[in-house]
Amino acid sequence: MDERDFFDETQTVKPARLNCDKCHQVDTYEVRWIVRTKKKVLPSSAGDADRAQFAKARSYMTRIDDFMQCTNPRCRKRFEISGLQSVVFL
Ligand SMILES: [Zn+2]
After folding, report:
1. Protein residues placing their CB within 5 Å of the ion ligand 1
2. How far is the CA of 29 from the centre of ligand 1 (A)?
3. What is the pLDDT of residue 62?
4. How far apart are the first and last CA of the chain?
């Protein structure tokens, strides 16, 4: 059984204050995340190992975007998102 069978998957967008490392301007960016919400019950095909793994599983979100385009019109460069976790447990 795949880990994906344990979760319902949705996408969301959350605002984050990010700092462009080229021009150092801070702005609010819409960062995309995948939200994996733990299912209430396992499918009946689950075995003992799946049940043990499922018991330990927690809902989490994982960041989709690694880069943002700077909103500063004099910069407009792509910069790597730093200072923001890539996985957040819910
Ligand atoms: Zn910039």
Report:
1. 20, 22-23, 70, 72, 75
2. 12
3. 97
4. 23
